[in-house]
Amino acid sequence: MSEADVENGDHVGLLAQKPNPGLKFDKKLSETERSTREIRNVTFANQRKEIKFNLNPGRSKLHTRSISQSSTDSYSSPSYTGSSSDEDEVNPRDKNQKNSKGSSDFCVKNIDNAAFGRREIEIAEQEMPGLMALRRRAENDKPLSGAKIIGCTHITAQTAVLVETLASLGASVRWAACNIYSTQNEVAAALAEAGFSIYAWKGETEEDFWWCIDKCINSEGWQPNMILDDGGDATHLMLKRYPAMFNMIKGIVEESVTGVHRLYQLSKSGKLTVPAMNVNDSVTKTKFDNLYSCRESILDALKRTTDVMFGGKQIIICGYGEVGKGCASALKGLGCNVLVSEIDPICALQACMDGFRVTRLEEVVKNIDILITCSGNKNVVTRNHMDKMKTGCIVCNMGHSNTEIDVGSLRTPDLTWEKVRSQVDHIIWPDGKRIILLAEGRLVNLSCSSVPSFVVSITSATQALALIELYNAPQGRYKQDVYLLPKKMDEYVASLHLPTFDAHLTELSDEQAKYLGLNKTGPFKPNYYRY
Fold first, then answer.
1. Is 102 left (phi over 0), alpha (psi -120 to 50) or beta?
2. 185: burial class by Cβ within 10 Å (0-12, 13-18, 19+)?
3. Closest listed residue to residue 490, CA positions, set 323, 280, 197
């Protein structure tokens, strides 16, 4: 990648109430009392904003705000603070903020919102039993004592539970976001208030994005020795700008398709000078995060952003890996006519056996209602495709990177961008046709909704164990290459979550274990086994 990659980055109407002709007032009420009684307050749970409307519009002005105006955070991450537009326009880098302990080693939207974020974290902890169990079991041993971890992931309530777990296990951490839209501002504030060095806020510019990562890496008196990455951005920046520092890293843990691809490229070219753990291809990540999580979160993201009715819609899923399988399964269950495009004959055959028609995007693009990319590739959807789409087509991405949809080709003088609500844009063609683009082509479920905490618990426990393994491994166990998480650790992560379901494993007898050639305590499958 070029040096420019480092700088540029990768990565409803007014609510009105008609007069009710049947509404009668007590004649004994004074005019003041009558006016007061006419005003009713309505609070939307997902906005936490007060909207007033007058039951008699002829008596006073209508006091209301459009949902699209007041929903700066409603459709992606919870926001309960309702900060003013003037405050929203101030870049957090220009603010002088300190937490209650007097520390200013952070940069978040508004430190005063920490209490709201703390409640979000407490809710997430209840639905993350495996990670909390790992925290309780290992916090006395402090297996990460002395570890200094650079984190670059989505900053959500679930991530906060991981951050605080790593700290409980002895680590010192500094954290930035891997996505400019997925940060929950209140959660970032809560972590900053707790003393963590968090550099992230929702709606960063590309310049802000790289500045935040750099602030985490280049801190006076703090030398990182581990990286936890989602997309490879922290790894990429450190390697390019601070090569000496990069060579002192003990290990990298990467959880995304894009980031793993980058690591394998570095390894192939001989530029990977430290061991790395590919968590993305571990069973607990691939099967649970990619499949089960996406099966639920795609519906949440589409509903929150577009209020779309799924029944009868023509939908094409570009890519039938675990993410595509989860999306297709969920949408089929709600009555959608789901089509699949694939390059891999094995995945294509799986789609056929699951009852989906496999086709090329070019053959059906004129008729589809919703397009979802899940391939991890680039330019899967081009300007030529979007030129042929019908008006109202919804276009979004469930892959990690923002390269699957060629959004750059839409930023031309002949097309008009119209912001509908947070993370929702109309792209309008000269003839009046418009498509709906979600999250500007970035990861739609984390940009526009959230993911199930339980599934994140599985992934986070896997990440924590990978960090512990790399940090404590004796010299020579891992060379300068990319490794998969040991099968035994995958099984341990799964076992941490079984008590939630009151699940009881059957134990092998000595005779059965000998017959299968296994240890009674596992691992139970060879590395080549496909779950």
1. left
2. buried
3. 280
Q: 167-221, pLDDT tens digit by residue?
A: 999 999 999 999 998 899 999 999 999 999 999 999 999 999 999 999 999 999 9
HSE-CB for 324 with a 13 A CA cutoff: 27
Tokens coding 254: 């990467």
- DSSP code per residue over 218-247: SBTTB---EEEESSSHHHHHHHHH-HHHHT
For the annotated binding site, the residues are 156, 230, 255, 285, 289, 321-326, 342, 445
pLDDT in tens, 47-67: 333 333 333 333 333 333 232
CB 325 within 8 A of CB 291: yes
In eight-state DSSP terms, residue 217 is H
Cis omega (within 30 of 0) for bond into 345: no
Question: What distance in Å separates the CA atoms of residue 216 and residue 96, rounded to the nearest whole number?
Answer: 18
Cis peptide before 523 (omega within 30 of 0): yes
Known binding-site residues for substrate equal 156, 230, 255, 285, 289
Neighbours of 451 (CB within 10 A): 21
- Among 453, 1, 528, CA closest to 259: 1
CB 236 within 8 A of CB 206: no
SS3 state at 205? coil
Pull the structure tokens for residue 239. 């390697």
Helix (H) or strand (E) run with residue 341 in it:
strand 337-341
Q: Enter the pTM of the model.
A: 0.76
For 150-179, letters b (16+ CB in 10 Å) and e give: bbbbbbbbbbbbbbbbbbbbbbbbbbbbbb
Binding site for NAD(+), by residue number, is 321-326, 342, 445
